[in-house]
Amino acid sequence: ITEVCGAKRVGYFGPAQFYIALKLIAAAQSGFPVRIESIKNELPLPRFMALKNDSEVRYGTPAELHGVKFQVPHATLEKNSYKRTDEGDKQEPKSPPMSPICSPPASPSTYQRIPLTYGYGKSRSGLEQHHGAPYEVRHPTHQQDGSSSGNYGAKPALACSTLSRSLSVEREQPDSSAHYSDDPWRITEEQRDYYVNQFRSLQPDLNSFISGSVAKNFFTKSKLPIPELSHIWELSDVDCDGALTLPEFCAAFHLVVARKNGYQLPETLPETLLPDYLQAASLKPLRDCALFDSYSESLPGSQQPRDFSRTEKTSAEEVPDNSALLQDTNKDDKQALNLSTAVKMIPKEFQHLTVKTAAQEPNALKARPRSRSYSSTSIEDAMKKGEEPPTPPPRPQKSHSRASSLDLNKIFQQNTQAVRSGWLPPPPPALPPRPCISQTEQVSEVEIHSQMNRPPSQAEENSSAKKEVVLAQPPSKPTRRKLRTEAQGLETPELSPTINVTSSLPAVKPHLPVQKQSSKQKRAIQTAIRKNKEANAVLARLNSELQQQLKEVHKERIALETQLEQLRPVTVL
Amino acid sequence: RPVLLSVICHPPQNYPLYIRSVPTENELKFHYTVHTSLDVVDEKISAMGKALVDQRELYLGLLYPTEDYKVYGYVTNSKVKFVMVVDSSNTALRDNEIRSMFRKLHNSYTDIMCNPFYNPGDRIHSRAFDNMVNSMMMQVC
């Protein structure tokens, strides 16, 4: 249908293409072949499933109106431009003159976005425009919207419930809003702040680059398939230098987020994501990010999140900065929120991974079950957000078990840090080299003990840690020290590899009074920690055993090789 | 008028990372041609010896009695070979044009390399690369 109506050719759905497409849908649904000629027939209105009555009406009317127009000019018309001008002419009495190229995309773009958005209500107002409401050329970005919407192509069948929902909800689109919230390719302030923070976590200097490999690891955590990530990179790395500057990074991140929320990736980078544009935009004053509530975590499935965005907003949050925010949500902001909602869902995963919190802890940490507060301006909040997902993140992708256990370690470190202090400085951007997992696990265990200050669990966990300490390989001692000192300033440096555990106990006790949390939380955290510790212990033991085996095999191999050399006195080197 | 383009990985494997031909029938024959021309390419490389090999062009003048087409080759510093097969009836194509096409290809290829998600040796799936190749081939045909 997209091709027939010409949208593919021009790259977007102008009014002509849109109307043709609707007629073609109706034709297809009535069993006619999808060809231009089919439009000539008297067709019933295209049926969009789960459409509420008022929206049906609205969809009906324009199709009808234009259906009438279609009958007459069609016989003499070719596909596109001619029709477009025709439509344009006929439209004129109804609305201010629309240039065929740049005006229409308001409705088609929203139409296109309907299957994918979580309540962008633009379509409603867009349809109103068809009826002669003053037509405001929405945003200059629509042009490129159109080009990107061309890719969304023939998805009218997907309109379904999202369409009905969006249409049935009255949405006023404040045109003057600086957030152009109907444009999913435009980055809102909150998103920008979030992206900037993420950038900072990878690369403290905002004027410098993130190298390719760092960015690759980071974006791989988003669990998008590699070809898509590759395409995203292609789009966002405008200067093709293998590194991402801040605006490039924001663009890439935004594309990832959009993709995770079901948007198709555009073929070319939308204008609003160009680095120049983003750099100019970054000079705008920070908007008060009062919009962001906690969102319940949801998979970025296409249909679900819109419901979530509803429920999310209405769910009562206990985080103080959210309570005020909730009241602020009005229709105006909903659109901005919706994408941001979606955005927040993704960052959760990211944060969950980047911040690496333990699975069970978030629930215990906060009284409310799954909501997260999003304050884009502080990493602390971002971390809290990341801690919330209740289930351990599956990490099936490129990382192997080693990496995942690394993550767990980092989780504990980070988490305890956050718990401890209102920890503002970003976590160390890259994991330090960890040659031996068992060591790090022991280290983290020890650290956690001191952090959490739970003597009884400490005792039991110390004993298990001790066992691992014994298994420790001597050369890794310096690594452990390094990890410890970098992670916590408070860690007593005298923890030696072999005696660390016992000495840690007395050193730790003075910290006891520092932690003041509800005992319930502590207990929950304790149990979580205990379980994870056990898992860690098992893995560490296994690892060390395997390493022993590896060493032995190496020795054998070396021995065999030397024998071989000896047996071959004359070798050509 | 058939045109075929192929990017071939560096030795020793010498398998194609990317093959595109316009029109798409008889593609197998072109694959075969490309493969056989690899030998000639290798020969030329070794003949060059220590000299720089970039911007090198290979004009094979491979002619079949029934069809005639020309095979052009290009090798990067990393021994990645680009092979292009064009129909001889396409006399409009001049040497300079071929060179510029190879240069564009090379640039696009390096852009792909910059992408951290691309592993050298993978097949090339980049849309940007595809677009560039398409536009180039449209120009030629």
TrEMBL record, chain A:
Cellular compartments per GO CC: cytoplasm; plasma membrane
Q: Which GO terms describe its biological process?
A: endocytosis; endosomal transport
- Where's the EF-hand domain? 224-259
What are the EH domain coordinates in residue numbering? 191-275
Q: Which UniProt keywords apply?
A: Calcium, Coiled coil, Metal-binding
Q: Which residues form a coiled coil?
A: 525-563
- What's a Pfam family in this record? EH
Stretches with biased composition (Basic and acidic residues) = 76-93, 307-316
Segments of skewed composition (Polar residues): 297-306, 450-462
What InterPro entries does UniProt report for this protein, alphabetically?
EF-hand-dom_pair (IPR011992), EF_Hand_1_Ca_BS (IPR018247), EF_hand_dom (IPR002048), EH_dom (IPR000261)
Which residue stretches belong to region Disordered?
A: 76-109, 297-332, 361-404, 419-491
Q: PROSITE patterns annotated for this entry?
A: EF_HAND_1, EF_HAND_2, EH
* Composition-biased stretches (Pro residues): 94-107, 424-435
Q: Which GO terms describe its molecular function?
A: calcium ion binding
Name listed for the protein in its UniProt record = REPS2 protein
Automatic annotation (TrEMBL), chain B:
Compartment(s) of residence? Cytoplasm, Perinuclear region; Endoplasmic reticulum; Golgi apparatus
Give the domain of life.
Eukaryota
Q: Which family does it belong to?
A: Belongs to the TRAPP small subunits family. Sedlin subfamily.
Q: Which InterPro entries does its entry note?
A: Longin-like_dom_sf, Sedlin, TRAPPC2L
Its GO CC terms are: endoplasmic reticulum; Golgi apparatus; perinuclear region of cytoplasm
Name of the featured protein: Trafficking protein particle complex subunit 2-like protein
Q: What is its main location?
A: cytoplasm
Q: Which organism is it from?
A: Chauna torquata (Southern screamer)
Q: Which UniProt keywords apply?
A: Cytoplasm, Endoplasmic reticulum, ER-Golgi transport, Golgi apparatus, Transport
PANTHER family (alphabetical):
TRAFFICKING PROTEIN PARTICLE COMPLEX SUBUNIT 2
According to its UniProt entry, one GO biological process term is: endoplasmic reticulum to Golgi vesicle-mediated transport
A Pfam match: Sedlin_N
